[in-house]
């Protein structure tokens, strides 16, 4: 992330935010006036949890099993909160992001291997997000998919260019995109009124109807905790405000944890709304819906063109914002692991190439989204385990090292996510898993 490059009002917004954060730390701001300037990093990171990959799994879950897998969405979101809070704490306490700490503490061959795998994961992330936005543009404006991709590239590059003028403008734009997504699904809840009692029950009562339900549950969790979000959050908190002492760090962590809870609660609510919308619209009569394009084409006749258009607007906002954030994460990964930075235009071009190749050779866009999730499942253990190792070391974190209770919770969450990702990889390889039938 840029520091305070550029001039003008946008640069000023970042400068004023830093002044406001210092006022909060030193106790001169309270209430809402203290919360707003502290908000930003978790909001940006939360985009990873409402990206187009989540759309595909949530639609399939709601269409096939109604409200039955809402508890999986809730569980995945709680695990995500835990890891994003740890990533934010790492950046605040150490003044380093996760990739930089890996570069400093691991052997050089290990660092190079981690970097290469993480770069591939960043490209896979951008493939899913870039294609999601392009699909939304293509369907909304009746454009060929390839033209939707070009338009997406221009829009995301424009968003990323804001970074030259400080961190705050980009945070505000991403926050506005999340607000659009949230508003779209709020409207959908009125157009497709769900069964609130059933939704509430299935949100807290675990149940898997059959082996196929477990397969979709694996996909939901696998599409939720993202490698690039774990890397990114530590860098976003690192770049925003330098803490002077442990009291500063303690206050920053307190506000960061609050923001993580609020931002990821909102992202989780959007994911649950996706499942609820798919359940109310498709479960009775169209339970085989599993693709974004199919969902759009069925929504129109079922609920009217307004509902279908709102769905596409939310997908477009999701794809554009998550694609921009994915490029930011890729830049941070490269700079942290190997110590150099490339122009954002070149970075944007590099991460776009796989998407254009996929479309150019005629691979189905939804199939490409699924394959990208497999790649992310392979890469996820690297940042997840590294984060847990660093945040429990007292020589790195000092008094902010994870407590025994936090260590137990985080390693349990990691074991669950990594086990489910292993199942996803085995299925992708075509291997039969006995208990999945």
Please, could you describe this protein's structure?
The protein has helices at 9-25, 32-38, 41-46, 52-65, 70-94, 98-105, 108-141, 145-161, 167-191, 196-204, 211-222, 227-240, 246-282, 292-303, 305-338, 344-360, 365-379, 381-391, 394-397, 404-428. By secondary structure, the protein is mainly alpha-helical. The chain has a single domain (9-436), classed as Amino acid/polyamine transporter I, CATH 1.20.1740.10. The radius of gyration is 21 Å and the shape is globular. 51% of the residues are buried.
CATH superfamily: Amino acid/polyamine transporter I
Q: Count the helices. How many?
A: 20
Number of strands: 0
Q: What is the arithmetic mean of pLDDT? A: 85
Cα-atom Rg, whole angstroms? Answer: 21 Å
Strand composition percent: under 5%
- The ordered H/E elements are HHHHHHHHHHHHHHHHHHHH
Features:
437 residues, mainly alpha, Amino acid/polyamine transporter I, 78% helix, 0% strand, disordered N terminus
In short:
This protein is mostly helical. It has 20 helices and no strands.
Topology:
Layout: H1 9-25, H2 32-38, H3 41-46, H4 52-65, H5 70-94, H6 98-105, H7 108-141, H8 145-161, H9 167-191, H10 196-204, H11 211-222, H12 227-240, H13 246-282, H14 292-303, H15 305-338, H16 344-360, H17 365-379, H18 381-391, H19 394-397, H20 404-428
Helix pairs in contact: 1-2, 4-11, 4-13, 5-10, 5-12, 5-13, 5-18, 5-20, 6-15, 6-18, 7-8, 7-15, 7-16, 7-17, 8-15, 8-16, 9-13, 9-15, 11-20, 12-15, 12-18, 14-15, 15-16, 17-20, 18-20
